[in-house]
Design brief:
heterodimer; A: 149 residues; alpha+beta; N-terminal domain of TfIIb; four-stranded antiparallel β-sheet; 5 helices; B: 472 residues; alpha/beta; seven-stranded mixed β-sheet; binds S-adenosylmethionine; binds zinc ion; TRMT11 (chain B); tRNA binding (chain B); TRMT11_N (chain B); S-adenosyl-L-methionine (chain B)
Chain lengths: 149, 472
């Protein structure tokens, strides 16, 4: 499971979900894998405002990944030299030239963390009730035992 | 707006118009239906331009192509008159272009010589370009629509080819060629159609809460979406012994399907989870009465009922103290199976509706299949929810039963709460800049091998899980 999914997951126990401490889940004993893929700017742009930034920083730091900036990046931060492109456009007198967008380092970093890095084996632990959800072959198991439903 | 002819396929009739409307909405294109009948494969629509026509039809599963309509009639005499009256201003534009003519009969055909005769009757168009059966720049289609077993066509259309549909995806994703399938896999045509109805597209996030072998997420990924899914049955995701194909050996799983179609980069992964005990974030994060969702679309084919074993987590009867204690004692053991109980189909549909109302972004769509009747043949009511507006109901009839594809759109909250912007959210920002360009960071972004090595060096390597037994 790619790390982006952790941005959407809480503890599955109903009484726990309402507690702020049940989000994000904390990876433990995690074996990571990277599956490389082409950077997807439209997706990053779309998903950016939906990210819980502080929580993603927590997860990245708990996994021992490079630390992320404290302030969430903006959509403008995702592309390189937007102003430059505008200038060329003016110079050539083009009306609506389709400018090839160049992803910024920020975009590449986000892509690497959220969409290329995944948890292959390990556990996800609830910060509220300490229940552990196992991850096996990249698939997390959120089925609750009888006494917790 | 000019008129276009959409050549539809004559299957899943009640889905065809809904699909075109969905694709028009997705492309931001105005479409007006001038002529549409369930029993005809020819629809006449108004669209702003060739480009708009292409936008709408090129993804369509239930059409074959779109043509600029030059004329129509019930006899050839009428057709020619119509072409002369409505399209003569266009003729000169194609005067020198390499071209060809195609005669396309629905439920009827003409002999070789008759075809030639018909084509020659269009000579007044004055095309002087070379005739090319291959690589023609322009293709002109004569469409004949026959009643069943009739000798002469009842209607005729003439049009200039604009764009092919996306129907070839049906063949590409054919279950027969798919790496991994299960007994409940939805056929490729309907899975792709579902993805179209839900407006799957590049940049979007899609989720299937009953993914099975993952056919819906795969279809959504085909249209460019980033996808994930879940299922209460972990075997259907991991594929262990779950394939419905005879003689299948080796590791077959959902991940493998994404690999097969080179869509791995769009697959976020899957979870084993029960829809009624979902780990997906549903709690309001910004305060206020409205939920700010994060999913652009939800597509699913829920289990239909008792025969298919609709189960949710929990026990039928309340567990007593001793039973609770036994579960607590044993749940971490290998081979522990969480208790499950039967559940009602209508209740699970309502659960999906409530989930969608919370997790979808405004304008996001839910496309969900449901049978018309339950196991006791009681007609099931179409579920409703205050935040979900009905977009379309499409019916697939079978001999003894039928099922429907319901599509909803999440509507904006009435009392628009001032949406908190992400910028104001970090009260801890003290301007302390994280060391962004340290060695470790750089190596991490260079690749995993580097990361592994570095993590080892840094002594922070996490203990690797060592493949414990399955418990689902
Ligand atoms: C009709 S199948 C979906 C098939 C899928 N569309 C495909 O093409 O492979 C329904 C799925 O729902 C799953 N299911 C049943 N009860 C569930 C529950 N309570 N929560 C989540 N999934 C459930 C079943 O395991 C089954 O895989
Ligand atoms: Zn918890």
């Amino acid at each position: 499971m790619k790390l982006l999914t952790l941005n959407f997951l809480t503890c599955a126990i109903k009484t726990c979900k309402t507690s702020p401490a049940s989000f994000p889940l904390h990876p433990r004993d995690a074996e990571l894998e990277i599956i490389e893929s082409e950077i997807n700017l439209p997706f990053l742009r779309n998903i950016l405002p939906r990210l819980m930034w502080e929580e993603i920083r927590v997860i990245a730091s708990e996994l021992g990944l490079p630390s992320l900036p404290t302030t969430p990046p903006t959509r403008e931060d995702l592309v390189e030299g937007a102003s430059q492109a505008q200038a060329t456009e003016q110079a050539e007198g083009e009306a609506v030239a389709e400018v090839e967008e160049v992803p910024s380092q920020t975009a590449k970093d986000l892509h690497r963390i959220l969409l290329e890095t995944g948890i292959k084996e390990g556990k996800l632990v609830c910060g509220n009730c300490a229940h552990e959800y196992k991850v096996m072959e990249g698939v997390a198991n959120f089925l609750l035992p009888g006494h917790l439903v | 707006m000019p008129e276009y002819l959409v050549r539809l396929v004559q299957v899943h009739e009640s889905f065809r118009k809904a699909e075109l409307l969905a694709l028009a909405e997705l492309g931001g294109v105005d479409i007006d239906f001038i002529h549409y009948k369930e029993d005809s494969p020819f629809a006449v629509v108004k669209l702003p331009s060739d480009l708009a026509a292409k936008k709408v039809v090129s993804r369509s599963i239930l059409s074959q192509g779109v043509y600029e309509l030059w004329g129509q009639g019930s006899t050839y005499k009428e057709l020619h008159e119509s072409i002369k009256a409505h399209s003569s201003s266009r003729w000169s534009r194609y005067e020198m272009a390499p071209f060809r003519f195609v005669l396309d009969g629905y439920r009827g055909a003409k002999s070789q010589t008759e075809q030639l005769e018909i084509i020659n009757s269009f000579s007044y168009l004055g095309f002087k370009g070379p005739i090319r059966m291959r690589d023609a720049e322009q293709t002109f289609h004569v469409f004949e629509d026959y009643d069943d077993k009739a000798k002469t066509p009842k209607s005729l259309y003439f049009g200039r080819f604009v764009a092919l549909s996306g129907r070839d995806a049906k063949t590409i994703y054919d279950l027969k060629k798919r790496h991994y399938i299960s007994t409940t896999s939805m056929d490729a045509e309907l899975a792709l159609l579902t993805a179209n109805m839900a407006l799957a597209a590049p940049g979007k996030l899609f989720y299937d809460p009953f993914m099975g072998a993952g056919g819906f997420p795969l279809a959504c990924a085909h249209y460019g979406a980033i996808v994930c899914g879940s299922d209460i049955d972990g075997r259907s995701i991991r594929g262990t012994g779950g394939s419905a194909r005879k003689g299948q050996t080796g590791k077959m799983d959902v991940q493998g399907n994404f690999k097969q179609y080179k869509l791995e980069g769009q697959y976020l992964g899957a979870l084993v989870s029960d829809v009624t005990n979902s780990p997906f974030r549903t709690v309001q994060t910004q305060g206020g009465p409205c939920h700010e969702g994060y999913l652009d679309g939800i597509v699913c084919d829920p289990p239909y009922g008792i025969r298919e074993g609709l189960k949710v987590l929990g026990s039928r009867d309340q567990l007593n103290a001793t039973e609770l204690a036994t579960h607590l004692e044993r749940f971490q053991e290998e081979g522990y199976i969480p208790p499950k109980r039967a559940y009602s189909f209508t209740a699970i549909l309502d659960d999906v509706m409530a989930f969608a109302a919370t997790t979808l972004v405004v304008g996001g769509r839910l496309s969900m299949w449901m049978p018309t009747a339950n196991d006791e043949d009681i007609e099931l009511a179409v579920p409703t929810h205050g935040s979900l507006e009905m977009v379309s109901i499409c019916v697939q009839p079978f001999n003894k039963w039928s099922r429907r594809l319901l599509t909803y759109r999440k509507v904006a909250c009435e009392q628009a709460v001032a949406a908190g912007s992400g910028a104001a959210r970090d009260p801890y920002a003290k301007g302390v800049k994280a060391d962004e360009l340290n060695d470790f960071r750089r190596k991490y972004f260079q690749g995993f091998k580097e990361l592994e090595r570095q993590r080892g060096e840094d002594g922070i390597r996490a203990a690797a899980g060592d493949g414990q037994g399955e418990d689902d």
